[in-house]
Amino acid sequence: MVSFDNTELAFAHQNDSDLKRSKWLFQMMGNTMMLKFGLKAMPLAVRWKIPFTNQIIRNTIFKQFVGGESLQETKDVVDKLARHKVKVILDYGAEGAGSEESLDHACAEFIKVIDYASSQENIPFISIKVTGIARFNLLEVLHEKMNLSEKKSILDKYTDALDMLEAEEKSSWMKSMRRLEDICECAKSKQVSILVDAEETWIQDPVDAITIMMMMKHNQVKAIVYNTVQLYRHDRYDFLYESYLHAKENNYLPGFKLVRGAYMEKERARAFSNNYPSPIQPDKTATDNDYNRSIKFVLEHVDEIATIIATHNESSNMLVCQLMKEKNLSANHPHIHFSQLYGMSDNITFNLAHHGFSVSKYLPFGPIHEVIPYLLRRAQENSSVSGLTGRELALIEKEWTRRKSKS
Ligand SMILES: Cc1cc2nc3c(=O)[nH]c(=O)nc-3n(C[C@H](O)[C@H](O)[C@H](O)COP(=O)(O)OP(=O)(O)OC[C@H]3O[C@@H](n4cnc5c(N)ncnc54)[C@H](O)[C@@H]3O)c2cc1C
Fold first, then answer.
1. For residue range 5-38, what is the model confidence (pLDDT) as tens digits?
2. Which residues of 129-159 are buried (b: 16+ CB within 10 A; e: fewer)?
3. pLDDT tens-digit profile of 40-60?
4. Cα 22 vs. chain centroid, distance in angstroms?
5. What is the pLDDT of residue 55?
6. What residues are in contact with ligand 1 under a 6 Å CB criterion?
7. Does residue 93 form part of some domain?
8. What is the pLDDT of residues 184-213, one digit of tens each?
9. Number of domains in the chain
10. CATH code of 117's domain
11. Which has the closest alpha carbon to 195: 274, 119, 111, 124?
């Protein structure tokens, strides 16, 4: 049975100097003062173009969590992961661009990423953020209008909301839909799957609606399009169930990426300041319960649902392994895939890969100034408050001690 304690396997892809860098970085992120300073200083230093900023970021946090500044630069990391039987979800880090030109540019980049992925054996997926190809404020307007509709189904609400848009909004939205169509059509023709990331709740309804539409259109034989379900939301287990029923009724294979969710503080703060009930679960146990309930659900319907278990939580990953064993599913079942972010939880990824499970690293790339929001989220997630730093550090130190005792 797989175990996540083998640090020799977990860090075999890192030489001593890589390991030392990781150790130093996790120590820094675990230091509250340093972290607070870094979170404030990093975006400002990049914006003000302070000398050596990019170089320092490139050799530290960027190297830990990002594959490179361009698609070509990811090759070394992709090849290194392939040697350890680890696949890649390639993520072009465009988030929240403003003008139509920058949205067109992001769409063209996504298509290049799909082309590239189709040429590499270990890149079966790419991820996209709808905020990379649609204006954030327009998504917000659509979300609000969907919530004015009295219809029950999410797709009917979406149709009603489209009718409520102003002419200029509608024209901009149609361009975004064209971009999404182009991306999905290219993905289908190249047989690369698209994972649509989940973002803030106040833009998520249109994101869900168009992702469901794309699944209906493209997921006839294989899951080309996957939606993301954030189980830190108290309404998402029901959403998962309803999405499954919709797929069954409409005869397509739904794809779901199961995550807990990355925007908890922001969600709670907005709900508090705008005086509406928080969409987030009351506590971590409630999130864990719904995450694990979702795992059981998708595994009960494994022939009808394709799933990506996207988590660093050891118990959730272990639960999937146990259920797969109980159900006699092969480790590399085509409908079950595991994934962790590049630079985190190598003990889970590389031990799963060693035992034959289908597993990937989520690998973002992009120019430093464009991946700053992603890096800030990683630094926050690895703060001393989250407890994750302690786990990563303990594993790195264990491996360091093991290597030194051998030399
Ligand atoms: C491959 C991959 C893809 C991802 N894609 C997305 C995405 O598209 N959208 C997205 O939002 N996130 C995404 N994430 C991030 C993910 O949502 C989590 O933030 C992150 O993985 C930490 O959760 P965990 O399950 O790994 O671990 P854990 O450490 O077990 O869980 C931490 C998470 O639990 C939840 N939590 C913590 N405290 C509480 C509390 N008091 N009350 C309620 N809930 C709490 C939060 O979601 C927190 O992030 C992705 C992660 C991976 C690995």
1. 999 999 999 999 999 999 998 888 888 877 788 8
2. bbbbbbbbebbebbbebbeebeeeebbebbe
3. 888 888 788 887 788 888 888
4. 21
5. 84
6. 197-198, 228, 230, 232, 259-264, 280-281, 283-284, 287, 310-313, 339-341, 362, 388
7. yes
8. 999 999 999 999 999 999 999 999 999 999
9. 1
10. 3.20.20.220
11. 124
This model's pTM is above 0.90: yes
Please state at what angle helix 167-190 crosses helix 100-118, rounded to 10 degrees. Answer: 10
Closest C-alpha to ligand 1, atom 3? 310
| Residue 194 lies in domain | 7-406
Residue 340 lies in a domain: yes
Looking at the domain assignment, is residue 110 inside a domain?
Answer: yes
Q: Is 319 exposed, middle or buried (0-12, 13-18, 19+ CB in 10 A)?
A: middle
pLDDT digits (tens, 9 = 90+) for 261-296: 999 999 999 999 999 999 999 999 999 999 999 999
Answer for the pair 309, 343: CB distance below 8 angstroms, yes or no.
no
Q: What is the mean pLDDT of residues 68-90?
A: 96
Does residue 74 fall inside a structural domain? yes
Query: Rounded CA gap, 376 and 373, in Å?
Result: 5
Closest C-alpha residue for ligand 1 atom 25: 311
Q: Which of 259, 263, 264, 265, when mutated, tests ligand 1's pocket best, judged by the most ligand atoms within 8 Å of its CB?
A: 259
Q: Give residue 138's identity as a one-letter amino acid code.
A: L
Of all protein residues, the one whose alpha carbon is nearest to atom 9 of ligand 1 is: 198
